[in-house]
Amino acid sequence: MPDYNIKILVVDDFSTMRRITKNILKQLGFENVEEAGDGVQAYTKLKTGNFGFVISDWNMPNKDGLDLLKTVRADPELKDIPFLMVTAEAEKDKVIEAIKSGVSNYVVKPFTAEILKEKLDKIFEKLGK
Amino acid sequence: MPDEMEEIIGEFITEAGEFLERLDPLFIELEAKGYDKEILNEIFRCMHTIKGAAGFLGFQSIVDVAHRSENLLKKLRDGNIPLTKHLIDAVLKSVDMIRLLIKHIKDKDSETEDITSLLKDLDRALTVSSEPAELHSSDPPDAIRQVIHDGSERTVLHDSPEPCSDRGASERKESLQTLRVDINKIDKVMDLAGEVVLVRNRLVNIVNDLGKRETDFPYAESLAETVSFLDLVTSDMHLSIVKMRMQPIQKVFSKFPRLVRDISSNLGKEVNLSISGEDTEVDKSVIEQIGDPMVHIIRNAIDHGLEAPEERETKKKPRKGSIAINAYQKGNQIIIEVADDGRGINVERVKKKALERALITGEEAQRFTEEAAINLIFAPGFTTADVATELSGRGVGMDVVKTNVSKLNGYVEVTTKKDIGTTFQISIPLTLAIIQALKVQTGGSHYAIPLSAVEEILKVSGTDITDVMGQKVLDIRGKVYPFLELLDILGNGKIRHTDYRYAVVVLIGEKKFCLAVDELIGLEEVFIKAIKGIDAASSYTLGATIAGDGKVVLILDLAAISRNIFGTREIEHTGRTI
Q1: Which residues on A lie below 8 Å from B57 (Cβ)?
Q2: pTM across the whole model
Q3: Are A110 and B56 inside 8 Å of each other by CB?
Q4: Fold classification of B2-147 (topology level)
Q5: What is the CATH number of domain B434-573?
Q6: pLDDT tops 50 at residue B169
Q7: Residue B466: which residues within 8 A CB-CB, separation 6 or more?
Q8: Do B53 and A20 touch (CB under 8 A)?
Q9: Which of A57, B270, B452, B489 could lock B320 by a disulfide, CB 3.0 to 4.6 Å apart?
Q10: Of B256, B249, B297, nearest to B155 (Cα)?
């Protein structure tokens, strides 16, 4: 059983997308969700919040998803935080790069609540939570 | 969660719209610069983002169009295929289609579009690079121009924008410090603010009365102090609320480069577009309603104003015609100008056409000043184009301009010089609902005159007023201005004093004249409430308000009065409406 109180950060520069993702998370029972509009904002929030999970889009201004992932993994405080990358199918080849940089998993958009649940479960399993 | 879905879709429509708005200027820049990785990436990202959200919301047509566009853009961005006008057009077509599809979603009209031919075009564009010509940023500008346009027209922004990805980034950063608020909520607050202003006015009046009576009311002083503080705070509050609804006019202007490009291309004219003052902030309602009139004016300028390149050359003018759009704040008004350096409006032809269409009689035509004659172009059904082109010449354009601008309590003026050019100037009041007003009494009734138009007030005696050809005038420091009784214009009541009058000297646009009244009452900040069932143009009022003393007062529409005096009185007398 995952901890439904876990604090999740949703990162995407399109606010409609953040909203959709938040909605899906709510459907799955996760209500403790915050948002960031790009990698820079996200990193700032991660440093100061008590986040247990990151769901990030790839294409963003200022600092994209891959960059954010690398920064997070290089930071001793944040290096173990579960990180789920949201990609479009066209970027599947980039997924390999993400895996090399330490992404926990990836999900292709558009995704349904079921698909997201699957991905989340896989990550939680690995963490032994 | 049907409501939630509605809201999310609403947000998508708004946000996707914003993204698409950013795209048009990018394309224009792309055409001017040639291959630019940053710009192409920015366009790609826009498509990609919209595609992503559309996928979630089940808008498959948008996904299909955006997907192919995205692929095309990626290849262009990475330099895998050369950038040509043909490809830019293909992507532009998909942008337009997505706009259209989003509009259908917004209007909930369940209309579908046939995207199969567009998809085929995009697929074909992807596999075959059909144009032999290529664009490289190292090509000399003239060569590029030839290649892109095959002799057709170009539009160039004089103020070159900042690098697009930076701009996009900082804009998006900004948007996270803003809040999206339903416009109805802001309107409600504005309404309430207006009511507060009126209540404040009443309080101020009561306190003043109290002061005059000198009663031994223990709280008189602290009451006066408190109300005076309330006065300041209310004014501040109102100003802040008005500002909430204001946005840079750039929102309207951003559509123009593409518009000018398309129209000039269709008509075989070469146009140089320059825009300034796009940071000028205006009320949201202005942004919503000023677009159409401006589009008509611009179309007109390109179609009728600007000459064909060859003609311009014979006139020793630069081949490219120029259209300059400018916006700035002047006191309590926002001024928007559209100026062209074309052939000017032929006033004689205008009069002739108006005669032909029986809009005026021969006698009136004789009496018309040049200014009054130019205003004929705003008459419904007026056009001098012998053949209605697809774009204009239907005689509806200028009429729409005047109507829409009047709706905003503004007015439009035209100045023109043969072969030099024509300038349209639109003036719109800054604040819509609350204004400073001068209260006057004449014929036993109270009226409010917008203070922004008042230049000065003079007490004059009967001997100061002279008669010139049936028109009363007043000499003010050597210059002579029309002098009219307010009552004569409004058509009711009798003036009280004949030995002296108060002349309120008003300035509307470039026209100055004097309105004579019995008495001056005072200054007040009033909240205008439009009165249903009264046609503003014929009653010369902007609306009514409740003054500090509790009376209902009509607020005068000086622009309408000015038009009556200077331009169209003759026409109105013959019963035809303009």
Answers
A1: 20
A2: 0.58
A3: yes
A4: Four Helix Bundle (Hemerythrin (Met), subunit A) (1.20.120)
A5: 2.40.50.180
A6: no
A7: B472, B473, B474, B475
A8: yes
A9: B270
A10: B256
